[in-house]
UniProtKB/TrEMBL annotation:
The keyword Transmembrane helix applies. It comes from the Bacteria. Keywords: Membrane, Transmembrane, Transmembrane helix. This is ATP/GTP-binding protein. The keyword Membrane applies. The chain crosses the membrane at residues 12-30, 42-60. It comes from Streptomyces rubrogriseus.
């Protein structure tokens, strides 16, 4: 109805303006008409008043439309803000729960959230070499905002590759049995030393940038690296396994002298691959069985940690191994 009224007023205004124009044009060239209109100032004033009223009404309508658009825009912004808040709340409620499958990216994200909160944070990892945990964590620590009260402790437990292992190892071509791969073990030892040195370098950078203090300790225990275990304090645990095996030529045979036995040409390297493996997340705040499993896994890690030997700082052969 309002739109119809607006169109009618616009049409009327155009008609009046055209009428005034034609009357004036005729009066200019047709003398009887001009004489008849001469001195009719009231008629001219009335016509101008009508035109002015219609124009004024049109201006009011345009202003009202602009105000309505502004109100609609404000209401739209308010609706977007409210919906954004509801989405954030829903996302928080649907966050990871105990027993959920997770990835290394999710683990690193939760580690980042923990250290960003400030205060004291302990991060523990039972790794192969630390490649998929230490390196992303190092980048998180170096990007932290300044907070001199922050204190981060990182504990990394790795296999003792200074001693012979079966897995990873060499698969003998003669009988398909596993034997030690000393060259590959030496390569892995160098990688671990490199990651440890990189974290210790990050410790100095954090102090220089006033990001807080960082303590780093690597320990080694004589086990095969099948288990992946990570803990954020004593509250959250991620666990998984190295579930992929890769058989390839042994490219590290010249890295160390081989003991008596089959030569390197008689076997291939059997390696464990953990990149891309899914993890399971457990939290003591999610009730049972999360709390029980967190206590059990933290106790498991603590027992191995106490029994492991400390890896002294040393330079990695040929670089950091990153």
């Amino acid at each position: 109805m309002a739109a119809l009224r607006g169109r009618a007023e616009t049409t009327l205004t155009k008609g009046l303006l055209l009428a005034v124009f034609f009357v004036g044009l005729v009066a200019q060239f047709v003398k009887p008409v001009g004489d008849a209109l001469e001195g009719k100032t009231y008629i001219g004033g009335a016509l101008l008043s009508i035109v002015g009223y219609v124009l004024y009404a049109e201006v009011l309508r345009l202003n009202a439309a602009r105000d309505a658009d502004g109100e609609q825009t404000r209401q739209l912004h308010e609706a977007v803000r409210r919906l954004s808040g509801e989405v954030q709340e829903l996302t928080a409620r649907l966050g990871p729960q105990s027993g959920d499958a997770a990835t290394m990216d999710r683990l690193i994200e939760e580690c980042a959230q923990a250290v960003l909160r400030g205060g004291e944070t302990q991060l523990s990892g039972m790794c192969f070499t630390g490649e998929t945990f230490v390196e992303p964590l190092r980048r998180v620590l170096e990007d932290l905002p300044p907070d001199p009260s922050r204190s981060v402790s990182v504990r990394i437990l790795v296999p003792d590759f200074t001693r012979p292992t079966g897995v990873p190892g060499l698969v003998r071509a003669a009988d398909g049995k596993l034997t030690d791969a000393p060259g590959f073990r030496r390569h892995l030892t160098g990688k671990i030393a490199g990651y440890a040195q990189d974290l210790r370098t990050t410790r100095g950078r954090m102090l220089h940038k006033n990001q807080g203090t960082l303590s780093v300790e690597f320990r080694a225990v004589h086990i095969s690296p099948f288990l992946k275990l990570y803990a954020i304090g004593d509250d959250v645990v991620y666990e998984g396994i190295y579930d992929t095996l890769e058989v390839r030529p042994d490219a590290y045979v010249t890295s160390a002298p081989l003991p008596q036995g089959p030569g390197p040409e008689e076997g291939q390297l059997l390696d464990l691959i953990g990149r891309g493996s899914l993890l399971t997340r457990w939290s003591r705040y999610d009730g049972e069985p999360g709390g029980v499993l967190v206590d059990r896994r933290c106790g498991f890690f603590g027992t191995l940690w106490d029994a492991a030997r400390r890896l002294e700082p040393e330079a990695a052969p040929g670089g950091s191994g990153a």
